[in-house]
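Progress against Task 2.4 (sequence-to-structure conversion) is shown through the following example record, which the project officer requested during the mid-term review.
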Amino acid sequence: MRPRILAAVTAAAGVLIVAPTATGAQAADAGSPGGIDTDVQSVKKMAAEHLAQQYGLDKETATHRVEAQGEFSKKAKKATDELGGENAGSYIDQKRGVLVVQTTKDEAKNKVKDKITTKDTEIKVVSRSMNTLEDQAKKLTDKLGDKLITARVDVAHNRVVVEVKKDQVAFAQDAAKGMDGVQVEGTETQFTPQAELYGGQQIQVGSGGGMCSIGFMGAKDGKDVLITAGHCAVGNAAFFREGKEIARTAAYAFPGNDMAYAPLAQGWTGQPGVDKWNGRGVAVKGSEEAPVGAAICKSGRTTKWTCGVIQAKNVTNNYGGSGRMGYGLTQTDACTEPGDSGGAWIAGDQAQGVHSAGGSVPVKAGSPTCGKNNQRGNRALFQPINPLLQKYGLQLKTYQG
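Structure tokens generated for the chain above:
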């Protein structure tokens, strides 16, 4: 059977576009991406629709907010570099449409105000630096051990938030005594890796039929590789398409980090795009990190395209089980489901990461609902892409057209 153009992408994800190398003209199968869109208007439209619904914005305002994110990303990075140890994090306040840059000292505002101040930027003085908050989060993570569900820095409120099961709240509060700026919350949500076994699916992870999603295409030593989540690649798994091996894991990390890459088998070529599930792929043009509050979308084999906003970075998550901690994750409020693991998270045309875990409260055992019946709403975690690229010495495939 002739490989579909989406082969490696759907290889569990429907995320990157992998085309089989052909010696002659070869048409795409029906339903496969027919090419890469050089603009990202459809992606921005979906992100704007989410913002409009989430924050009660009109269409024009929501679209403007999404368009502004690229410039906000650059300003947030510049502020972090300039402020150093006095940096207290930056975030986009979507209700007002401004980038909020935080610092711990009033005089430190002078370091950045001439470089980044515009009518859409606010510089705010708060009491705790990011270094302080991240140190508090680590200390409390170590104290709580397997009782921890998640730990994160809530940038907008300049505090650390830790989640434990509801019956462990008192224990966690006692462990946090004497620690400044810590809030303990009880929850029934558990973030879990979202790989799942599906019989008869087109793409398998290993011989057992596990399903995941591919994130992005990269290159190492001149050879195309696929990038996905580490928990999809445990044991140096091979990836299959319609019974044929398309890639075999070269390196993976999980738990701790959740990252992996696999060189493509002979005859397969990676494309610099993300599957939009409409017969096209959207171009990937870089990996500039978006700030907290930015709108972001995910492409995965189960839930296809879903969008949300970035809620927190450098999140610690307990995947369940002794020692199964994940670090340095990014949290969003987009809908994800089993099978989306490894999928692509993208803001505009900038790659952000690969899907790691989702948290939802089941209506009944085995029936997650993407948080629709959970008062806390949807939540998902992804492994940021830039640390992954750096760890393995990969180059992200980007559209050069």
